[in-house]
Amino acid sequence: MKLFSLCLLISLSLPASDWPRWRGAAGEGAWNPAEIPADFATREPELLWKTKIVGGYGGVTVSGGRVYVMDRPKPPSRTERVLCFEAASGAQLWQHEWDADYGSMDYGSGPRASVTIHEGRAYALGAAGMALCLEALKGTVLWQVDTVKELGAQVPTWGFAASPVIDGPRVLLHVGAQPAGSVLALDKLTGKLVWRGGPDPAGYCTPEIITHGGKRQLIAWGPEHIQSLDPDTGAVFWTYPYKITYGVSIAQPIYRDGLLLVSGYWHGTKALRLGGQPTEVSLAWENEKDMCGLMAAPLFRDGVVYLLDKTTGLQAIELKSGKILWSDANTLTPKDRNPQMSLVWLRESEGLATLLNASGELVHVRLKATGFEELGRHQIIGKTWAHPAFAGSVVYARSDTELVAWRLWP
Q1: Per the domain annotation, does 6 fall within a domain?
Q2: What range defines the domain where residue 160 resides?
Q3: What CATH code is carried by the domain that includes residue 225?
Q4: Are 274 and 214 in contact (CB under 8 A)?
Q5: Is the peptide bond before 37 cis (omega within 30 degrees of 0)?
Q6: Whole-number Å distance between alpha carbons of 357 and 384
Q7: Number of domains forming the structure of the chain
Q8: What pTM was computed for the model?
Q9: Is residue 4 a part of any domain in this protein?
Q10: For residue 82, which of 141, 25, 27, 24 has the smallest C-alpha distance?
Q11: Residues 199-255: pLDDT tens digits?
């Protein structure tokens, strides 16, 4: 009874905010809580709870007072799981497990995608291609589709990594089904195939829907092309060639001011100018050597893109021209062969951002066209590439061994 009362008290004190999908509610890395402290440097986070999980790179999601994450039990098990925890206490509420043979998959410690929560349902995509819709409260299976066996999906070298995207009555999956199924649209209630579109094999980038000139476009970055599809039908609006070494199309493109910026590890950055018609696209500028992203999705504010380059660290780039304004010289996340940070807007109107770096440090920064200012840094977890979830003043982060919740301020 005392434990229940404590959990209830903590629950009532936690902010009622959600992070229901990859990179937040709109998939744009926007946190923007109602209140933030005046001084980050002296504000020590408070550990609310931690609990053991196992391997995986998939991000954390939060909805309705519950935390969702995927992992993979250690061999000899050949399964994957969706786990659900109480946000207030960390108590596990349910898990659902299914067969998943990774074979010789590189970096095979666990699933890569985030669980998407929508209207009481939890949508998941495993690294080996199993797509599921579960009841978010209990974990009951509502439908399950093996996209490889049933729809011809082709598992890429590092497994399926794109998180499910909800668009109206459909759930969109980037799985490279052949033929003409770079993206599959399934009925979100039944799992039945609605359409398939796009010529590319599977990349690792979560699709996104943009609106240009009043027309919606589904952007799906594959290992051979940047693709624009009609989200309602799957018809191809345009493709732009961008063949990538090892097929590592990972970091989410960013669209602003009529330009779509895409950045890759081996062949640098391209900025595409979208035309007056949905089928029109042209190259605005490119830089193949000096700005090479990998996994980290960029941010944008006031004409400037903030992008993690594989060599120089976080860069500020003028979007319209491609001019590099500054780099952080690898101070915000360690210099590495595969550098990583999960970067979100803490308060976009003021240029305040928060990142979780590859060492598990949570760093608050102010980003400007003229430079950056570090405001506070705290160790909250071990090494990680997984995207955390931000809900109110609480951050939820995962590694290959644990899931943690920290309150960042009262």
Answers
A1: no
A2: 17-407
A3: 2.130.10.10
A4: no
A5: no
A6: 8
A7: 1
A8: 0.94
A9: no
A10: 141
A11: 999 999 999 999 999 999 999 999 999 999 999 999 999 999 999 999 999 999 999
